[in-house]
Structure formats: C-alpha cells, structure tokens
Design a protein that fits this description.
With 200 residues, the protein is an alpha/beta fold. It contains nine helices and seven strands; from the N terminus they run βαβαααβαβββααβαα.
Length: 200
Amino acid sequence: MHALVVVAHPDPGSLSHAVAQALADGVSGAGHTVEIADLAKEGFDPRFSLNDLAVHRREIAQPADIAFEQARVDRADALVLVYPVYWWSMPGLMKGWIERVFANGWAYDEGADLKTVKKLGHLPVHLVGIGGATMRTYERHGYLSAMKTQIDHGIFGYCGAPVVTSELLLPIPQMSEHLDTARDLGGKVFTPVSKAAQAA
C-alpha cells in the first residue's frame, strides 16, 4: 500500500514538517511505501486562476502541474494532510492545493442538472492539524466543530473521500510527544476501520 503525505508549512524546521516525517516513518515502519509532498518547497501555486475556472467549466484540459498532483494522488491508497492551523482552518497553501487539484471531473462530477457525483470514495483521508490554542478554546468558540464541518464534511464529504482520522495536535509540555503520536498514526494509516467508527 502507498500513502501520500501532503504538508503545507514554509519552514522545513517546523513542527508540521517533523510531524509529517514522523507520520511517514510510521507508514514505512508498518511495511508500506510513502511519499511526502512538500508544497512550499515544491513551489506549488495555490492561486485559483481563470484557467482553473475554465477547467472547472470543462472548456480546457488540466494544466501539467495539476495533472501531476492528481496523478500522485491517484497512485496513493491513502491521503494524509499535515498542516498548521491558521485562523481556525488550514493555511492558504493547502486550501489552494485542494481548490486546484480536487477539480470538477476528477474529484467529483458536476452535471448540468446540478447533481454531484462523488468520485473519491476509494480514497481514505487522514487529517492532522497542528494548533496553537487549547482544546478549551476550540470547543468554547465552536472552532473544532466548524473545522470539521468545513474540512471533513465540506471538502472530503463532497468528493466522497472518507475521513478516517481527524486529529488536532495542540500545545503540550513536551511537544516531542506529538512525534510519537504521528508515528503511531502513520502505523495505522492502513488499518481497517469499521463503518461505525468512520461515521463517529
């Protein structure tokens, strides 16, 4: 089995990158292959342009950079996103990657009758956000449920991709413990999950 780990942070020395690497180590340690896509290092352009709109309208084919990203997602048996929480959501680089890569005709089909066909039901998704506030803050203001609604349901539910893991790593006395958590998550990326657990 093969996992694609996508990380969006400009600093290669960040906790986000360390978590992504630890998670990848967990995947490989469980006997699977893994690729890390470092969007900042690779210079991915997150801007949704007129060309992207033309692709959405089925007027032109996908540009080479997006076809490349879609191909590496297609090669994966699981998709893992690792990102810092900026303004109670994923950073613009990650969001732009989703907006451009998860395109009409590939992630879903939007017909003339406005009915949507979900095309990523085969792709389990694992989300690992790294936040700077306490869980009490997330829960008191409804940020946690808002993030799950927007990301888990609004993005991946729309495409039919099941979100198996939705983890939020928050400040703790020994932040290095998050690397142990990430390795553990990586080791379980391909562990079968019951339908009841997925729906929870």
